[in-house]
Design a protein that fits this description.
Low-confidence stretches: none
Shape: globular
Distance between the termini: 17 Å
Structural class: mainly alpha
Radius of gyration: 17 Å
Strand content: under 5%
């Protein structure tokens, strides 16, 4: 069943990209929602019912909602910026759920947080040199990237201290999620939109979420 859901997610995500590129935005929203529903179902199916796994499943569900919201900005273009910012806030909530799940497992919390803050500052300086965005988007971007960078530092820190299958798979998923967001930001806020970067963004995103959902099988 897990294999079927993974393949179904990949197929739906690919069709979503095709429909979005054709500006069939209503169809694209539906397809993206169905693709994201696949990793939610995987999370629910693999959830052993622990506190950690429940938080991760909550993050997956919130991510699915955020996916739909982000693409609704294409359907309701007159409110596109507002919908985009709300979608980012919803995604931020999902990252907080993930962070709340793995932070208690971290042996070096303070070190991971400090490293996360430094890496966030360096990454945002690098990004801001390459994009043009309004101040509100930049503020949201710093908070959002800060949260997912913190998640990545904690997840990687957990792997360094304990090389468990759960820690490894979750960390890989978190890293892919971070890279997908960086690609999304660069492609959204630069003057030239590239479909190849959009394809990369979506591919990395779904790979990341699927791995995070699949990591729950290692907690059973």
């Amino acid at each position: 069943m897990l294999f079927v859901l993974i393949v179904l997610c990949a197929v739906l995500a690919r069709i979503f990209l095709i429909e979005e590129s054709k500006e069939e935005y209503v169809k694209a929203v539906i397809l993206k929602g169905l693709a994201s529903l696949c990793f939610v179902v995987i999370g629910l199916t693999c959830n052993p019912g622990s506190h950690v796994s429940n938080l991760i499943v909550a993050g997956l569900i919130i991510g699915c909602i955020a996916d739909v919201m982000l693409n609704l900005r294409m359907v309701f273009k007159e409110k596109g910026q507002l919908i985009f910012l709300v979608g980012i806030l919803v995604f931020l909530t999902g990252h907080i759920m993930y962070l709340a799940a793995v932070l208690p497992l971290c042996s070096y919390k303070l070190a991971c947080i400090l490293i996360g803050l430094v890496l966030t500052a360096l990454l945002m300086v690098w990004i801001f040199k390459r994009i043009t965005a309004k101040p509100a988007f930049k503020i949201f971007g710093v908070v959002y990237i800060g949260a997912i960078m913190m998640l990545n530092c904690v997840a990687v820190g957990n792997v360094i201290t304990v090389q468990s299958p759960f820690n490894i798979i979750f960390a890989i998923g978190a890293v892919l999620f971070l890279v997908s967001d960086i690609v999304l930001i660069l492609n959204t806020f630069r003057s030239e939109f590239r479909q190849s970067l959009r394809n990369t963004n979506i591919s990395l995103y779904y790979a990341g979420q699927l791995l995070i959902a699949f990591s729950l099988t290692m907690l059973a």
